[in-house]
Amino acid sequence: MAAERVTRQHIEARLDELVAENRFxxxxxxxxxxxxxxxxxxxxxxxxxxxxxxxxxxxxxAVMRLPxxxxxxxxxxxxxxxxxxxLVAYSFGIELVGVLTGWPYGDFSxxxxxxxxxxxxxxxxxxxxxxxxxxxxxLLCQLVLGELARRRAVRLVAVICTVLLVDVVLDPxxxxxxxxxxxxxxxxxxxxxxxxxxxxxxxxxxxLLDYGFDRARLMDRLENCEFMLDDLVSFVVLWGSINAVxxxxxxxxxxxxxxxxxxxxDRFDVAGLGSGEPGSTEG
Length: 283
Hints:
The protein is globular, with a radius of gyration of 18 Å. Strand 2 and strand 3 form a beta hairpin. Helix 2 packs parallel to helix 9 (230-245), helix 4 (78-101) packs antiparallel against helix 7 and helix 5 crosses helix 6 (152-177). It has a two-stranded antiparallel sheet. It has a two-stranded antiparallel sheet with strand order 2-3. The longest helix is centred in the middle third of the chain and has 26 residues, at 152-177. By secondary structure, the chain is mainly alpha-helical. The protein is built from 11 helices and 4 strands, in the order ααααβββααβααααα. It has one domain (2-273). The model is unreliable at 276-283 (pLDDT under 50).
């Protein structure tokens, strides 16, 4: 058991070091390259194997998720594993119901394959896309609100609002780029019901993450691990850029609001991202 603990701590420390030394590449270069490739795919400027290559998309997404994975890793115990497992199951279940019935997100379908598809309807890689959206929103609210976030009612409202802001950026960009499409939608091709669905998903997230993670340990790690929200930085860069190219100015404005939250939390610092210094991390 002691040997396993030492091995785990060594792996976590190495992962911290890897992410800290490559912050700018992960949080800025990868999303900019990804945005350029997706825009070229949508415009028909590239063909196979680059055009909407699902494995390139999954690889790039996984790389941008590394800061979140490294940040959460030291906190991952049995309760966290149970909570995350339930959240993964929920993501598959709600997405499958959504594709088959149109509830709760509205009638939609995937227009490209984002890797292998479960029952030909939902990407097997869905948790790679879904979990960071809600995890990052939860973490940002905890960091920005500080002591106010001790109250679950405050956390719940804040996380719901943040998840909605994130999806106001994501869905219009994803529709524009051709990831999926809705059968009718007044907001850049996205129906209002989609956002009501995210209220449900954000609520489930808060209760599961509250159960799975000790708040004191989570806050200590979040405050001392400078790169823990870099995944949200890459999200703003990627989807903010895509929305800007398509002229989706409301989503661009919301992306800037999220960037403002990261600035307030002292997490959106391009100079810091590019320093290559490990920063203050624990492991």
